[in-house]
C-alpha cells in the first residue's frame, strides 16, 4: 500500500525527459546479460534442471526496492523517480521472460500469461502509470489528497527494511553456486549497468541510479517464482539472504565512491 502511494506523490513532481524512457529498457538489457552470463558460466557444470532454474531466478531478478531507502535519503525525490522508472523494466521482465524461464526448468503446469495479468492489475503498476501521466501533463495532486497519503507514503523505507529482516535466513546452502549467483547479479550486474548507462548517454544522478540499481541484491520475487515452479528453494533462499547482507555493506561504499 505504501509504495504505490510514494510513487503517486513523487512522480508528478519529477521532470520526465526523453532519456528517462530508456531506463526500463536498460534494466531489461542488464537482466538479460546477467542471465546470459549465468548460462555461460554454468555450462561446464553438471547442474540439475531445478538448480539451473534457481540460478536463473537468482540472476535475472534484481531487488530495486532494496535501493529505494538509500536513493531517497541521498538523491531525494528525483533520484527515487529514476529508480522507479528503471524498476519498471524489471517488472516487465518478471511478468514475461523470467516467469516463462522459471517454468522452462520445471515440470509444473502454468498459465502463460498468469504473471502478466497479476502485475497488470497491481496497484504499483497503476500508480506508476498515473504518476507518469500527472508529470507529463504538469498536474499536481490535490492538496487534500496529498495531505492524506503523504504520511502513509513515508512509511515505505522503514517497511522495506523490516521486510529485508523477515526474508533473511542464516542457513546458507551450496555456497559455491550462491557465490557465483551473487558475482553475476551484483558484480557483473553493476558493470553491465555502467556500460548501459554510458552507451545510452545518461549523465549525473540518473547515471548513478542506474549503476546502483543494476548492482542491487537479488529480488524477493525470485523466491516466489522458485516456489511456484518447484525449483531449488534452498539455493534461491540462500542467495537472496546473503545478497541482502552484502548489499547492506556494499551499496553504501559504492555510493561513497560516486560521491
Please give a handful of descriptors for the protein shown.
mainly alpha; 12 helices; Na+/H+ antiporter like fold; 259 residues
Tell me about the biggest sheet?
Answer: none
Binned strand content: under 5%
Q: Classify the helix fraction into a percent range.
A: over 70%
Helix/strand-derived class? mainly alpha
> Mean of residue pLDDT?
85
Through-space gap between termini: 32 Å
CA-based gyration radius:
18 Å
Name the shape in a single word: globular
Poorly predicted segments: none
Tally of DSSP β-strands? 0
CATH class: Mainly Alpha
CATH topology: Na+/H+ antiporter like fold
Give me the strand/helix succession.
Answer: HHHHHHHHHHHH
CATH architecture: Up-down Bundle
The total tally of domains equals 1
What's the total helix number? 12
Describe it.
- With 259 residues, this protein is mostly helical.
- It has one domain (2-258): Na+/H+ antiporter like fold (Up-down Bundle).
- It has twelve helices and no strands.
- The longest helix is centred in the first third of the chain and has 41 residues, at 64-104.
- The model has no long low-confidence stretch (mean pLDDT 85).
Give a short overview.
With 259 residues, this protein is mainly α. Helices cover 76% and strands 0% of the residues.
Describe the protein's topology.
Blueprint: H1 2-10, H2 23-42, H3 49-60, H4 64-104, H5 114-120, H6 123-137, H7 143-153, H8 156-167, H9 175-200, H10 204-214, H11 221-228, H12 233-258
Amino acid at each position: 500500500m505504501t509504495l504505490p502511494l510514494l510513487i503517486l506523490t513523487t512522480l508528478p513532481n519529477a521532470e520526465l525527459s526523453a532519456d528517462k524512457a530508456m531506463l526500463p529498457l536498460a534494466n531489461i538489457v542488464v537482466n538479460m546479460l546477467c542471465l546470459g552470463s549465468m548460462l555461460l558460466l554454468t555450462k561446464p557444470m553438471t547442474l540439475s534442471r531445478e538448480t539451473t532454474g534457481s540460478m536463473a531466478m537468482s540472476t535475472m531478478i534484481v531487488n530495486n526496492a532494496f535501493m529505494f531507502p538509500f536513493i531517497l535519503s541521498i538523491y531525494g525525490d528525483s533520484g527515487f523517480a529514476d529508480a522507479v522508472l528503471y524498476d519498471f523494466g524489471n517488472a516487465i521482465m518478471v511478468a514475461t521472460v523470467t516467469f516463462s524461464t522459471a517454468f522452462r526448468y520445471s515440470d509444473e503446469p502454468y498459465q502463460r500469461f498468469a504473471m502478466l495479468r497479476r502485475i497488470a492489475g497491481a496497484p504499483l503498476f497503476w500508480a506508476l502509470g498515473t504518476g507518469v501521466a500527472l508529470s507529463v501533463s504538469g498536474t499536481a495532486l490535490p492538496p487534500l489528497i496529498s495531505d492524506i497519503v503523504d504520511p502513509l507514503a513515508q512509511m515505505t523505507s522503514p517497511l522495506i527494511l523490516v521486510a529485508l529482516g523477515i526474508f533473511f535466513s542464516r542457513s546458507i546452502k551450496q555456497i559455491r553456486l550462491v557465490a557465483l549467483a551473487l558475482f553475476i547479479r551484483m558484480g557483473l550486474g553493476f558493470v553491465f549497468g555502467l556500460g548501459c548507462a554510458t552507451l545510452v548517454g545518461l549523465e549525473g544522478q540518473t547515471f548513478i541510479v542506474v549503476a546502483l540499481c543494476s548492482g542491487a541484491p537479488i529480488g524477493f520475487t525470485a523466491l516466489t517464482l522458485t516456489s511456484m515452479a518447484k525449483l531449488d528453494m534452498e539455493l534461491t533462499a540462500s542467495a537472496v539472504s546473503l545478497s541482502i547482507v552484502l548489499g547492506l555493506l556494499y551499496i553504501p561504499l559504492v555510493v561513497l565512491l560516486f560521491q
